Amino acid sequence: MKLVAVGLNHRTAPVAVRERFAFAQAQLVEALGVLPAYVAEGTILSTCNRTEVYAVADQAGEARARCLQFLVDFHGLSPGDVEPHVYAHENEDAARHLFRVAAGLDSMVLGEPQILGQVRQAYEAASRHECLGAILSSLFRSALHVGKLVRTETDIGRHAVSLSYAAVELARSIFGDLARCCVLVVGAGEMGKLTARTLVDCGAGAVLVANRTLARAEELAGRFGGQAVPFDDLSAALARADIVISSTDAPGFIIDAAQVRQAMARFRHNRPLFLVDIAVPRDVDPAVQQVSGVYLYNVDDLQAICEANRGERQREVRKVEALIDLEVGRFRHWWQTLEVLPTVADLRNHAERIRQAEVARALARLGPLTEREVFTIDAMSKAIVNKLLHVPTTRLKEQPATAHEYIHVLRYLFGLDEGRP
Amino acid sequence: MSLLSAALLGLALAGYALAAVAYGVSLGVRSRAVAWWGRAVLVGAAAVHGVGLLARGLALGYPPLATSVEGLTSYGWIVVVAYLLFEARSQTVAPGAFIAPLALIAVAALLVRQPGALDPGADPVIPILRSIWLPLHVGSILLGYALFTLGFVAAVLYLVQDRHLQRKRPPSAGHRLLPLATAEVMECRFIAVGFSLMTIAMVTGAIWSWQVWGTPWVWEPKQTLALVTWSLFGVSGVRPLRRALRGRRAAWLVVAGFASVLVTYLGAGLLATEGLHRF
Predict the structure, then answer these.
(1) Which letter, b or e, does each residue of A43-55 get, where b requires 16 or more Cβ atoms within 10 Å of its Cβ?
(2) How far is CA A74 from CA A19, A38, A46, A79, B20, in A?
(3) What per-residue confidence (pLDDT) applies to B1?
(4) A174 contacts in chain B (CB < 8 Å)
(5) Containing H/E element for B199?
(6) Minimum mean pLDDT among A17-21, A53-57, A127-131, B112-116: which range?
(7) Residue B136 gets which letter from DSSP?
(8) Which one of A176, A270, A304 has the shortest CB-CB distance to B168?
(9) Rounded distance, CA A291 to CA A270, Å?
(10) pLDDT per position as a tens digit, A187-245
(11) Domain segments of chain B: what residues?
């Protein structure tokens, strides 16, 4: 029994190759339908950065070849297209690879959370189409567990590494819960809209939109479920908003210190104000941050935070690897026990066949016996077999690490493989 | 009984030391697991501390509030219990690195400074303190001080977070700092309740003083200092004033108020040699 992980990802294959081997949602159903024809157990993990097949087959070399064959057949390509980009991991290494993928260590953005959901979907889809057996089910459940564990136990996915999420985290560290916060979106720059969108998705309470053209403001406000405000009346809007996202293409400052100072003192009663200036050239006069209770961040500030957070995640990799090591150890133990089980069963069957034959022969020779006597002879033979086999079988199961050699010895000494087709 | 109480307090002392180390380490290495252990040890130490105080009270026949160091030890217990409730709500463990050593000092003070710590009977209490006003006056002031301590903790968290934001440092993980707004709300609540309790303590103190000294107010150092503390927190606790002083300035005022608590309580209680109210 061999476990393999065969696939290609953003490190080994350019997008031009990846896109040809990707499985769209609709294709996946069909693919999972034909996969059992190639391997005993199989799962397909397909995202924009990777296409991987996890499979169980009798022989390792064969498993890899069959997975490749499946990929090539399904997408109607030639083996030469995929060979140079493919990696293949076996057994323990395959398990480790999946755990690293689920933990986000193999992702383009270290520790990103989406991959865990994608692993779960791959598992569930394969499970629905009955492509999973005991081995892959157990492996994927472990992987999901690892994925969750590393995100709660380490900081690998904790800090924002994109501008919009950095803005959300900052807003949270000022206001805590965003539900009571009002977001003012000034201008309609792409980053501004994205940041506003992210804030709304993260629970921001109300949205105001100000734009030079009122129609544009109303259109945007409709999209965020907010309210358009006149551009000339920014001061009034500043009095209401807690978070300001500014991304106009105005050549000069549109929010100045006097305006903010007045809003803070007169209307906000010094309630904190968080300004995010994503525009280049800048929209907000840097002097604004001298005002007490005002926190102003520009593009560079946000970028620096993302950069620092990337470093932070990098530093967590070792902790994550340690957690993965633990889980791989658990998998190894389970896997090796799995390897022992067929031999234990063969040994028991072998002994049982001999026992039954010998009991039958003895009973034939002894002639008519009472039921009690027959029972006693049968019980004695069973007891001898059990007592003889008890120690070797428990030792095999207890020491799976060394079991591999013993399996060969045992099979040879007892002739377990003789007389087999 | 007294031996039991001393043994329990000694155990609590060890627990606080261990918790202080765990909280300190958890801040250094940013590990939630270590902080979890710190919290577990702190809960255990607080439980032992509480039983130790109870045992002492039963052995003495009056609440363990009569001397400055006894009061300090009781105050330490109240602070830890209140802090544990705060930590459960806020999920922030950073202040534990301050609270645990504080409790450590509070317990150590009793065991070191009080000659009769091991044998309470050997250190007879001043007769005027055997009164119903002892638990009322001292209890409310200690509870008030405990809440001021937590208000101070919240104010420091506010100032640290504020500085973080001003320097544009990456937002810190949730278990180390609080959002500004949350820190401010907590600070306000602790100060408001602490201020009410201190007001009660001032009133009961005046009544008691009137009973034993014949006048509600003797201008002696501790009372004067308490009045300063009370006014400082009054300013930061009263709503209209608070609005004008919101945020950074209010937080600094709370820090000043806490410094004033320290001077009032430790300065006048433990170090001063003059004055009627030396306990």
Answers:
(1) bbbbbebbbbbbb
(2) 14, 11, 14, 12, 62
(3) 47
(4) 165, 179-181
(5) helix B180-213
(6) B112-116
(7) I
(8) A304
(9) 10
(10) 888 888 889 889 999 888 899 999 888 888 888 899 888 899 988 888 888 888 999 99
(11) 1-125, 127-279
Q: Which member of A48, A67, A131, A202 is catalytic?
A: A48
List pLDDT tens digits, range B230-245.
Answer: 887 777 666 656 666 6
Name residue A51's beta-bridge partners: A8, A46
ipTM of the modeled complex:
0.77
User: Can you give B110-133 as a three-state secondary structure string?
Assistant: HHHHCCCCCCHHHCCCCHHHCCCH
Place of tokens 């501004």: A192
Beta-carbon contacts of A323 under 8 Å, excluding residues fewer than 6 positions away, are A103, A146, A149, A150, A153, A154
Chain A: closest CA distance from residue B21 (Å): 21
Domains of chain A: 2-157 (3.30.460.30), 163-303 (3.40.50.720), 334-413 (no CATH)
Q: For tokens 């600094």, name the residue.
A: B252
* Token pair listed for A349: 């069957």
**d(Cα A198, Cα A169) in Å, to the nearest integer?**
11
Give residue A341's pLDDT band: very low, low, confident or very high (50, 70, 90): confident
pLDDT digits (tens, 9 = 90+) for A8-35: 999 999 998 898 888 988 888 899 999 9
In chain A, the residue whose alpha carbon lies closest to the alpha carbon of B33 is A153
Q: What is the average pLDDT value for chain B, to the nearest integer?
A: 78
The closest CB to that of B171, out of A155, A173, A304, belongs to A173
Alpha helices in A367-399 (DSSP H): 371-398
* β pairing state of A182-186 and A243-246: parallel
Told to judge if A48 belongs to the known catalytic residues of this protein, a careful annotator would answer: yes
CA distance A160 to A144: 22
Cis peptide upstream of residue A36 (ω within 30 degrees of 0): no
Q: Tell me the pLDDT tens digit for each residue of A350-379.
A: 999 999 999 999 999 988 889 999 999 999
Given a contact cutoff of 8 angstroms between Cβ atoms, the answer to whether A142 and A99 are in contact is yes
Asked if A30 contacts A43 with a C-beta cutoff of 8 angstroms, the reply is: no
Q: Which residues pair with A211 in a beta bridge?
A: A230
Between the two ends of chain B, the Cα-to-Cα distance in Å is 25
pLDDT tens, residue by residue, A310-340: 988 898 899 999 999 999 999 988 888 887 8
